[in-house]
Design brief:
The chain is α+β, with helices and mostly antiparallel strands. Helices cover 45% and strands 14% of the residues.
């Protein structure tokens, strides 16, 4: 996989996202991480001491990044905006950076993290042992982000899952981003 073959987040959409306040996104991310932990109880508990680390998930083609602290007792996921110079000022133990499509593709198992690392499509900085533990936990959990988003909508989850199921192939063709896990349930 090379940088040229990984799609980048549309600049126009990113400019709109950059202008939005992070509070609504942070509220959604709080609900998302709580639901994710409940639906995949071993996801973060298997990290042992690494669960107390803070990870900066840095999609380099988007104006925001995400701070993840996967502590099973109190998991946190929050949005962090880039400074005008493009940097992200946030305390962290490790940084995982690359185009959003590469990061999402790794979560869905569509892209190989090792290949992305060795081709320099993603960059790992800081505590590499913690990053490897997180990656293994995510791989073993077989997370489908569409399923996880649908799950947080409560009683509307089946309806939202059906919308995702129908829209995902079209959106994936348009963006090149793997929006669901192959064989995912979207339920």
């Amino acid at each position: 996989m090379t940088e040229a073959s990984i799609p980048h987040f549309p600049r126009l959409v990113d400019h709109l996202v950059a202008r939005l306040p992070t509070l609504p996104l942070d509220l959604a991310l709080r609900r998302f991480i709580t639901s994710l932990t409940e639906r995949h109880p071993s996801l973060f508990s298997r990290l042992d001491d690494q669960a107390r680390k803070t990870f900066l998930i840095d999609p380099t083609d988007v104006s925001i990044a995400f701070l993840l602290r996967p502590d099973p007792a109190l998991p946190r996921l929050e949005a962090v905006k880039r400074a005008p110079d493009g940097t992200i000022v946030a305390a962290r133990d490790a940084r995982i950076a690359g185009p959003l499509a590469a990061l999402v593709g790794m979560v869905h198992g569509a892209l190989d993290g090792d290949a992305l690392f060795f081709s320099r499509d993603i960059v790992i900085e800081g505590d590499t042992e913690a990053v490897l533990a997180l990656r293994n936990a995510v791989d073993d959990s077989e997370i489908d982000l569409a399923d996880e988003v649908a799950a947080i909508t409560g009683p509307a989850s089946k309806f939202v899952a059906e919308i995702f199921r129908r829209a995902a192939p079209v959106a994936e063709r348009m963006t090149g981003v793997t929006l669901t896990r192959a064989g995912g349930t979207t339920a």
